[in-house]
C-alpha cells in the first residue's frame, strides 16, 4: 500500500488565510501581525486585553519513552485538537517550534504527521518566523558583551576561569562542544576555554518560554548569572548592561505565532526547548493566551512522560500557575513490541507476547502521571501493521492499571479517527477529577528534589553526585536559589541514564555529572549520564537527502 509522505499531504492542504483562523478565536485583524498569508504573530496589546477572561481546560499530551519505531506525540496532539473541534468544542493546539538541529539530523520535523499536521509544514520546520534566530542572537550578544567587557579593562573583576555563559547555535555540531576562544594575541582578548550548546538548551529559550510579558522577559534576562569574580560573587547580565538590547532582539519573538491544522483549526506554535536537555514545553504566553480564547487547549511536552510531563508539571505549571484537567499518554503497539525485545526489522510480524512484555514501560508512565493528581487516558496511535490481538493486549494491560486505552486513527483519517479519544478527554476534564499538585514543594532542599525525581519518576535507588556538586547546590541554597525546581538533562530513551535500557527498570542509580544555575529561567539544570547539551549529527544525517526539486519545492524534509 502506497502512502503519501507528510510533506506531500501538507503541500495539498487547503489552507485558509491566517486572518480567518484568527477570527475563529475572536482575534481582530489589526492584532494579527502577518508573516505571509498563512502565519502571524498575536500582538502583546491584544493578549493583555484578555486578562479578565476565564480560562479553558488544559489537556497535556505526553508519551512513553521514544523508540525508533515512532510514537506520534505531536501527531496525536494535533489530531486531538481537531477531534475536539469536530465534536463541537472550541479547541486550540499549542505546540513547540522545530529546531533545525534534529530536522537536519535524524528526528525529523515537529509539525505532526499524516492527516494530523500543522501547516505550513516546510516553514515551521525551517526558519518559520525567525524566533530561534532571535534567541540565538540575543544569547550570543550577551556572550560577546562578556568578552568585550573583559577586553576593555574588566571593571567588574570577572574571573575568566569562572565564566559560565557559553555560546549557542541552532544546529547539531559536536565539534563546538568544547572550544578555546580569543586566540591570536593581544588584540583578540584573553584566551579561555568555553563551548557551544544548541539553541534549544539556551537559558534565553527557557526564559522566553516562561515569561509572561516583555517586562517579565527583561527582568529574567537581567537575572541571568553569567560569571563569578575571584571572590565568587555572581555577575549578572544586567551588570554587563546586556538585558535591554537582548529584550529588543526578542521583542517580536516574544509574541506567539498562530498557524492552522490541516482541518483549518487554530494552533499556536511558540518556543521550543528540548525536554531531554531543557524543560520541554511551548511558551507560557502562548498557552495562557490559548486558554483565554478556547474552551480546550491541547498542548504537548517533549519526549516521554518521565522528562516532558514531569517538567511540564514541576516547572511550567508550578511557575505559571497552570492546572491541567487531564493527560493523554501516547503509545504504539510497535513501541510496546520494541520494549518487549523485538528488533525494528521484525515489528511488522504479530507478537502478542512481546507486546505484553513491553507494556510495563507504559504502565510506569501511567502511574507517574497519576501521581500528579491528573486523570490519564492512553492513546494507541494506530499503525497499519497492528493486529487486533496486539491492540487488545495493550487495552487489557491499561485496564489493569486503572485507565483506558483508546485506538486512534488520526494519522490516516484526521479528526474522524480520533473522536473517541476527544469524547473521553471531555468526560475526564469535565468530571472535575483533576487534583493537580507538583511532585515536591518549593522549600525542599535542592539535592532532595533531585532524589525525589529520581526515585518517584525514574524509580531509581538513588542519585550519585560528587561532593563538589552537592556543595554547589548548598551554595546556591545559601544564595537564595533553594526554592527553584530541578530540570534534569538525561537521555529520553530510558528511565535510566543508559539509553539502551528499555522497559520499566528498577535498582539503578542516576549519576549527576554537572549542575548549572538558570537564575533567569528559574530552575537548576542537573546534567546526568552521557547526555550532551550540544548534540552531534548521526552517521547518515537527514541533511543528505533534503533538497529542492525541479519545481522549487523542498524534498526530504519530514
From TrEMBL:
Gene3D superfamilies reported for this sequence: Domain 2, N(10)-formyltetrahydrofolate synthetase (3.30.1510.10), Formyltetrahydrofolate synthetase, domain 3 (3.10.410.10), P-loop containing nucleotide triphosphate hydrolases (3.40.50.300)
Top class in the EC scheme: ligase
Protein's UniProt keywords contain ATP-binding: yes
Record-linked SUPFAM superfamilies: P-loop containing nucleoside triphosphate hydrolases
The keyword Nucleotide-binding belongs to this UniProt entry's keyword annotation: yes
Pfam family name, one: FTHFS
Binding site for ATP: 67-74
Protein name (database record): Formate--tetrahydrofolate ligase
Record organism: Cypionkella aquatica
Source species taxonomy: Bacteria, Pseudomonadati, Pseudomonadota, Alphaproteobacteria, Rhodobacterales
Amino acid at each position: 500500500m502506497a502512502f503519501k509522505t507528510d510533506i506531500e499531504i501538507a503541500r495539498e492542504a487547503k489552507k485558509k488565510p491566517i486572518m480567518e483562523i484568527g477570527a475563529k478565536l475572536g482575534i481582530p485583524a489589526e492584532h494579527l501581525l502577518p508573516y505571509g498569508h498563512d502565519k502571524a504573530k498575536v500582538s502583546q496589546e491584544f493578549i493583555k486585553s484578555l486578562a479578565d477572561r476565564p480560562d479553558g481546560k488544559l489537556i497535556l499530551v505526553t508519551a512513553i519513552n521514544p523508540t525508533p519505531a515512532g510514537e506520534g506525540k505531536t501527531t496525536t496532539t494535533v489530531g486531538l485538537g481537531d477531534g475536539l473541534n469536530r465534536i463541537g468544542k472550541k479547541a486550540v493546539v499549542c505546540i513547540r517550534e522545530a529546531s533545525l538541529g534534529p530536522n537536519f539530523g535524524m528526528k525529523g520535523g515537529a509539525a505532526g504527521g499524516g492527516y494530523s499536521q500543522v501547516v505550513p509544514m516546510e516553514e515551521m520546520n525551517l526558519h518559520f518566523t525567525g524566533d530561534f534566530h532571535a534567541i540565538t542572537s540575543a544569547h550570543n550578544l550577551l556572550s560577546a558583551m562578556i568578552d568585550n567587557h573583559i577586553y576593555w579593562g574588566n571593571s567588574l573583576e570577572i574571573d575568566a576561569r569562572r565564566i559560565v555563559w557559553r555560546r549557542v547555535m541552532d544546529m547539531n555540531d559536536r565539534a563546538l562542544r568544547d572550544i578555546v576562544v580569543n586566540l591570536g594575541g593581544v588584540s583578540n582578548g584573553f584566551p579561555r576555554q568555553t563551548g557551544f550548546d544548541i539553541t534549544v538548551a539556551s537559558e534565553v529559550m527557557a526564559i522566553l518560554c516562561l515569561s509572561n510579558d516583555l517586562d517579565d522577559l527583561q527582568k529574567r534576562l537581567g537575572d541571568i548569572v553569567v560569571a563569578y569574580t575571584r571572590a565568587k560573587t555572581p555577575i549578572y547580565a544586567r551588570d554587563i548592561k546586556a538585558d535591554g538590547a537582548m529584550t529588543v532582539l526578542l521583542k517580536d519573538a516574544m509574541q506567539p505565532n498562530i498557524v492552522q491544522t490541516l482541518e483549518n483549526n487554530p494552533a499556536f506554535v511558540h518556543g521550543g526547548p528540548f525536554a531531554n536537555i531543557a524543560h520541554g514545553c511551548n511558551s507560557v504566553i502562548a498557552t495562557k493566551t490559548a486558554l483565554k480564547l478556547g474552551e480546550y487547549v491541547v498542548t504537548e511536552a517533549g519526549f516521554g512522560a518521565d522528562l516532558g510531563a514531569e517538567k511540564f508539571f514541576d516547572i511550567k505549571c508550578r511557575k505559571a500557575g497552570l492546572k491541567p484537567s487531564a493527560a493523554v499518554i501516547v503509545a504504539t503497539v510497535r513501541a510496546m513490541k520494541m520494549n518487549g525485545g523485538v528488533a525494528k526489522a521484525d515489528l511488522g510480524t504479530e507478537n502478542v507476547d512481546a507486546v505484553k512484555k513491553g507494556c510495563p514501560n507504559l504502565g510506569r508512565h501511567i502511574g507517574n502521571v497519576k501521581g500528579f493528581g491528573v486523570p490519564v487516558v492512553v492513546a494507541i496511535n494506530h499503525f497499519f501493521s497492528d493486529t487486533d490481538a496486539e491492540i487488545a493486549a495493550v487495552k487489557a494491560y491499561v485496564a489493569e492499571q486503572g485507565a483506558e486505552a483508546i485506538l486512534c486513527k488520526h494519522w490516516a483519517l484526521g479528526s474522524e479517527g480520533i473522536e473517541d479519544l476527544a469524547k473521553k478527554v471531555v468526560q475526564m476534564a469535565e468530571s472535575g477529577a483533576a487534583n493537580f499538585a507538583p511532585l515536591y514543594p518549593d522549600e525542599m532542599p535542592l539535592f532532595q528534589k533531585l532524589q525525589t525525581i529520581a526515585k518517584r519518576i525514574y524509580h531509581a535507588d538513588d542519585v550519585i553526585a560528587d561532593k563538589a556538586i552537592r556543595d554547589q547546590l548548598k551554595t546556591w541554597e545559601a544564595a537564595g536559589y533553594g526554592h527553584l525546581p530541578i530540570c534534569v538533562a538525561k537521555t529520553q530513551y530510558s528511565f535510566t541514564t543508559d539509553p539502551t535500557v528499555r522497559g520499566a527498570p528498577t535498582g539503578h542509580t542516576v549519576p549527576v555529572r554537572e549542575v548549572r544555575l538558570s537564575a533567569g529561567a528559574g530552575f537548576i539544570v542537573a546534567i546526568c549520564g552521557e547526555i550532551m547539551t550540544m548534540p552531534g549529527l548521526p552517521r547518515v544525517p537527514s541533511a543528505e537527502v533534503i533538497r529542492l526539486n525541479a519545481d522549487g519545492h523542498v524534498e526530504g524534509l519530514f
